[in-house]
């Protein structure tokens, strides 16, 4: 069912969510309102997506919304915005994408008992239909109220809030690790003598195909490697070099560093 949406903050992530949700018809332009302080931004969003926009938050308009999307920056006065949402008299589900702001902090700022709150870490692959968003709900939130909307811009994993930082460093930053691998692989192809165009096309085909093999076979990567790596052959020779390098540790250390940095940012460090 199409939901009406009131979005506070019109930055890149909110735009990506709205774009994907409009495309999947989880929301409609006619019943979507976006607030942003930038005149250029509200003009752009209105002209591009034909949604209603304004530069000031108007709590009285929340009565027309099924969902409230809070997408301001952590350094903005989100607590005052939440207080106004709470005092509006409308207990519409509040979906927050503010990095580092916990459900407890939002509940305290709302100053209303039993207000439904969802804290999500939205994936960055919204335009593709791939990627996974992590969503944590408080005791008053109903998954059914937000599920269709969240799934309109990718898959959703409902998780305990203590996993949010892990999700950010691993799942949400995940495309970055793939981009880096793609770049390293294509550079290797060029180093070996292929054109950049050839290397890019082959690497993309292999990435998509390998992911599909993992999906449709359900096999462990080691099993698929065994299929490709014949005794004394090309594959096992390449495998030996990878095993002797810091490839695996580099990826693992990058993920752990990203998780650690997420936790630091949540503490304002």
Automatic annotation (TrEMBL):
Which sequence ranges are marked TM in the entry? none
Q: Which Gene3D superfamilies match?
A: NAD(P)-binding Rossmann-like Domain, ProC C-terminal domain-like
Q: What is its EC number?
A: 1.5.1.2
Reaction catalyzed: L-proline + NAD(+) = (S)-1-pyrroline-5-carboxylate + NADH + 2 H(+); L-proline + NADP(+) = (S)-1-pyrroline-5-carboxylate + NADPH + 2 H(+)
| Residues the entry annotates as binding NADP(+) | 8-13
Its top-level enzyme class, in one word, is: oxidoreductase
Chief localization class? Answer: cytoplasm
Pathway listed for it is: Amino-acid biosynthesis; L-proline biosynthesis; L-proline from L-glutamate 5-semialdehyde: step 1/1
Q: Which UniProt keywords apply?
A: Amino-acid biosynthesis, Cytoplasm, NADP, Oxidoreductase, Proline biosynthesis
InterPro entries cross-referenced by the UniProt entry: 6-PGluconate_DH-like_C_sf (IPR008927), NAD(P)-bd_dom_sf (IPR036291), P5C_Rdtase_cat_N (IPR028939), P5CR_dimer (IPR029036), Pyrroline-COOH_reductase (IPR000304)
- Superkingdom in the source lineage: Bacteria
The yes or no answer to whether the keyword DNA-binding is present is no
**Any Pfam family:** P5CR_dimer
Name where it's found. Cytoplasm
Regarding protein family, the annotation reads:
Belongs to the pyrroline-5-carboxylate reductase family.
Entry function: Catalyzes the reduction of 1-pyrroline-5-carboxylate (PCA) to L-proline.
Name this polypeptide is given: Pyrroline-5-carboxylate reductase
